[in-house]
Structures are given as structure tokens and as C-alpha cells.
Design brief:
Layout lengths: L4 E8 L6 H12 L7 E9 L5 H5 L5 E6 L4 H13 L9 E5 L4 E2 L4 H10 L4 E8 L6 H8 L16 E4 H7 L9 H11 L4 E11 L11 H8 L31 H4 L1 E2 L2
Parallel strand pairs: 1-2, 1-4, 2-3, 6-8, 8-9
Antiparallel strand pairs: 4-7, 5-8, 6-7
């Protein structure tokens, strides 16, 4: 089941400061794919009132979809729908790769997803790490002890999630949920019998900000785990910190990952 087409779907809500970095990284990852694999990148402008659309327009190969905002599940679903509407072949040959506008994917992101897909995975659950420039030094140290290289934790992140299009459709797609739509999709895929693989081979860098786009998302978790007083802001210009590993709240974990996930090399 070799993948012949990749659809990258990125929801964005007022992300003018970070979406350019995201799209540049996705473009770099796409250029590493084999020449016979086609790529379609769709950004969902989810109720944006800032300059996000103008930044995205600087990437002429990127298509956009507009939604009214406030529901990330609906936004992701709209992006996937727009991407699959352009597909004329077998959906089993199409890979949907999801990330977020405040994230930066590594160069090998798509090639690693396709390696696992071509080996039989229907779903790839990848790891993320918060941007160390958004953390204080003691927070960086705490993060670094949470990750064991080669042992993916199986936590679900919309910023690093891939799914075969045929499996996505069979599972009903993203539900119109304001948060944890990624976890809900993976649970539905599991119920539908999809083969789910967890991998930490390629980490996706994501924002470590404290004010996110959904109350129970990654920003909310960081705020809970690392409470700060007004006198302890992060030094965003601090250089030289190593990337860090990540953990997430229980609501973002796959239920019983030992039975659900197959670890990848």
C-alpha cells in the first residue's frame, strides 16, 4: 500500500507570528519526498482576524479554506475534506498529515510518516516537544527527564498525526469538537480496526505559549504543570537550549496504549 499522495492539513487561528515558520518547515519536508509522490498543503483559516491570511499568501502553493472559528475539530475536518475533494485515485494511497500552525516540523517528518505507512501503518501517532525558548531553565530540565529516546509515549497530538485517508473516512473523520478532536479520531480509528503506530523518530516542535486556542489544549497543560507568577516570565531570547521531550495530560492520552499502539523503530 504505497502512498502516492500526501495531504498536509494545518488549522490556523490568528497565527500570523508563527504560521510562516510552520509552512517553511512543511515545504522543506515535502521537498524530501520521492518525485512520484504529490503533495497538497491546506491551511484552514479558522476565524482569523489578524494577518495570518497575508502570511499564508506568501506561499503560493498552499491552498486555504475559511471557517468561522472556535472549533478546531470542525476546522481540521474542513481541511481534510477540501484536500480529499481533489483526490481522484484510491484513498488507500493517500496520507493525511496533520500539524498545527504554531508548530515546526523536521525535514524528515513526511518521509518518516510515509515509511511507516508503506510498512502497513494506517495511523502514525508522533511525539512533540515544546519550544525551549518559551520555557524557563528549570522547566527545560524537568521536561528533559520525561523522554526516553526510542520509547514513544503513545500520546496523541494533532501537531504530529498522520492517517491513511481510507481509514480516516471509515472512522468518520474529525468530530466537531472544540478540543481533543485528535484523541477522539484515534479512538474511532482504533474501534474501526486501524493499525496504529507510535513513533518518536521525528519530533515536532510546538509552541510553549501559555495562552492557546482551546482551553484544554497544550497551552493549558503547560500552564497547569508549570504555574508562574507575574515575576517569572520566560526569556524568549535565551539561546542554546536543547530541544526537550514532552508529556501531556491524561485527557490527551490514548486509552490503554499498551494494547492500542505498536511502537515504531
Amino acid at each position: 500500500m504505497s502512498v502516492r499522495h500526501v495531504a498536509v492539513v494545518i488549522p490556523a487561528r490568528d497565527e500570523q507570528d508563527l504560521v510562516g515558520r510552520c509552512l517553511a518547515s512543511v515545504s522543506a519536508a515535502a521537498h524530501r519526498l520521492p518525485s512520484d509522490v504529490t503533495v497538497d498543503v491546506v491551511v484552514v483559516l479558522d476565524g482569523c482576524v489578524d494577518g495570518t491570511a497575508e502570511v499564508v499568501a506568501c506561499f503560493p502553493a498552499v491552498r486555504t479554506v475559511v471557517t468561522r472559528g472556535g472549533n478546531v475539530g470542525r476546522a481540521r475536518a474542513a481541511g481534510v475534506r477540501a484536500a480529499l475533494d481533489q483526490v481522484r485515485g484510491d484513498l488507500a494511497d493517500v496520507w493525511v498529515a496533520c500539524t498545527d500552525a504554531d508548530s515546526e516540523v523536521p525535514d524528515g517528518w513526511l518521509t518518516d510518516h510515509l515509511r511507516l505507512a508503506d510498512a502497513g501503518a494506517d495511523v502514525v501517532v508522533g511525539t512533540v516537544r515544546p519550544d525551549p525558548r518559551d520555557l524557563l531553565p528549570d522547566e527545560v530540565v524537568q521536561w528533559q527527564v520525561t523522554r526516553v529516546p526510542g520509547r514513544p509515549n503513545g500520546h496523541v497530538h494533532g501537531a504530529n498525526l498522520g492517517v491513511r485517508a481510507s481509514a480516516y473516512v471509515a472512522a468518520g473523520g474529525f468530530a466537531p469538537r472544540r478540543e481533543h478532536e485528535d484523541v477522539g479520531l484515534v479512538a474511532a480509528l482504533h474501534a474501526a480496526g486501524a493499525r496504529i503506530v507510535a513513533s518518536d523518530v521525528v519530533d515536532v516542535l510546538t509552541s510553549g505559549r501559555r495562552e492557546g486556542r482551546s482551553p484544554g489544549g497544550y497551552a493549558g497543560y503547560l500552564t497547569t504543570r508549570f504555574p508562574r507568577s507575574a515575576s517569572r516570565p520566560a526569556d524568549v531570547d535565551r539561546p542554546g537550549l536543547d530541544p526537550v521531550g514532552a508529556d501531556v495530560p491524561a485527557s490527551d492520552r490514548v486509552t490503554d496504549p499498551a494494547t492500542l499502539l505498536v511502537a515504531a523503530d
